[in-house]
Amino acid sequence: MSGRIFTVRLSEDENAVEILDQTLIPNRIEYLRLETAGQIFEAISELRVRGAPAIGVCAGFGMYVLARGMSGDLLPQLERAGEYLISSRPTAVNLSWAVNRMLDCARKHSGSHDELLSALKSECTAICDEDKAVCRAISENGLTLVHDGDGILTHCNAGALAAVEYGTGLGTLLLGKERGYNFRAYCDETRPLLQGARLTSFELSHAGIDTTLICDSAASMLMKQGKIQACFVGCDRVAANGDTANKIGTRSVAINAKYHGIPFYVFCPRSTIDFSCKTGNDIVIEERSGSEIKTNFFSQPVAEESVKCWNPAFDVTDAELITAIVTERGIARYPYTESLRKLFS
Ligand code: MRU
After folding, report:
1. Tell me: the pLDDT tens digits for 6-52?
2. Helices marked H in the chain — which ranges?
3. What tens digit of pLDDT does each residue of 68-97 get?
4. Is 50 in the pocket of ligand 1 (CB under 6 A)?
5. Which DSSP category does 10 fall into?
6. Mutational pocket test of ligand 1: of 50, 164, 193, 198, the residue with most ligand atoms within 8 Å of the beta carbon
7. Cis omega before residue 26 (within 30°)?
């Protein structure tokens, strides 16, 4: 994140994870100190910290902070804490990936208590630093796919707010701006929690990018008018065959893009690819409260309390609809079962 704003970091006294409370953006910039497992769980499940890479970094720092407060045999306590944190959100694989990295570090360690804490600190710092480097590499690769002046449609928020720096899906726009490209970004507001309106339009306009906010349902019309040259999205879990879970509505964008002959690009780090999921059918989709549809962000409810809601937080875009998956190692093309394996073998 540019300027003084940061998404997630370890506090100076190392007793807390500090996060930007993203539920308050764009109206207020406030940071929270997360010191207990319950506070970290709440911050992730309530989307105060959100976006797959940022959740992973938060969980990594969280495991270290929790370990510092433990005495006796750390491993069983860390395993219980890790299981609890992983249960805060099911779809983004970066959460379990980061927790398991911390647990593997603890399992491999045979030294003293203090040495184990020091190893855990190095591991969570590495998770954070790697995220910065990886997002930068993804953004560089993304720049090879677009041209100065292009109109780019975004969905949800896959920028620095969803990671540590640059982000995945928005990194190309942010890096391109630094290099003098003049992109036109069109941001789907992204119902129901409005990450596109609240976060993406905030991030991109603050970076000086020409940014236009649209209702999700306006995207198809923009495509028909020729204003969109590419669609950029991040993701929460990519199956081995390339099926991709991302914020609800992503699949509709991909179908629309295919109809209009517009490339649809998914941006993701290796940590978001789950080779143990063969296809999208193996991905667990988080379902959230109907209040997010009926009452959040409205001064009065927009539907009666008795009305039933179905509120999946994510959908799965079929691999066939994805023009390319842009990673830190390079750009994978369909069929992804081969191309992703080749990039990361
Ligand atoms: O529910 P959220 O806000 O955590 O959903 C986030 C997304 O769907 C992002 O697009 C995804 O995590 C990629 S972030 C680089």
Report:
1. 999 999 999 999 999 999 999 999 999 999 999 999 999 999 999 99
2. 37-45, 52-68, 74-86, 93-108, 113-143, 171-178, 195, 201-206, 219-224, 250-260, 291-294, 336-344
3. 999 999 999 999 999 999 999 999 999 999
4. yes
5. E
6. 50
7. yes
